[in-house]
What does this fold into?
Amino acid sequence: MLTFVRTKESPRSDERLDHCPFCSWGSICSKQASHTFYCERPECHVVSCLTCLKACPRVKSDYPTDEELAEIEQHFICAELADDKQIVDDYLELGQKVPCPQCGLAGRKDHGCTHMACPTCAQLWCYFCGKKVEDCDKVRGGTNEIYDHNVDWNCNPNRCPMYLRQIAGVDDRWPNNEEDCLVRFHRIRTLRLLREAFEKLGQNRMDELDRHFSIISSSDFTWNEILHGDLTLIRYTNSNQTRNNS
It folds into this structure.
């Protein structure tokens, strides 16, 4: 969908690009601006809440109805929760991809190996641990760069598999095909981030976010998984070692 913006310039570091939830219009404003969007497109002109992405009521008299007042109150709650909702939304998004450790460009790998080459900065890195090749643990004296990071991965928690499907050979909780492994990897990653959000924001705030936005209830995750699930990445069957970092 094309977005029409009221300025030809790109947003500065202290600005953001907002989009109308109901049409293709967008505009640049300060990051400190209200989370209410006033669409300037003649065919639209909807006033909307950028937090819940719903239309705000148009009160046409000095005496709004009870329904209008209740709806307005809901949008005041949206504004009060907006920053914390953004934290959880960012974690949910980050859980489904991994950022380049050099420039931060994030993406999701295909069904190939865990060796990544960033298209922006050309950094070579490992998708599984998220480290630059120069920071990865590698076999001593090796000359194959990132391939040396895969040597003995099945018995060394500091090394990583070249393919996710290899993990099933040491941990039977993992599937044996790359596509399902990728789903499992990102599910564990997202659950870890949601647990971090819970620890950062606290139970009361997370409950409030879920009551207002169904941010967890409408997702594929449960509170029990987030708070009490076993998020161990790899269990090594031939030793007592586990892999917890991802």
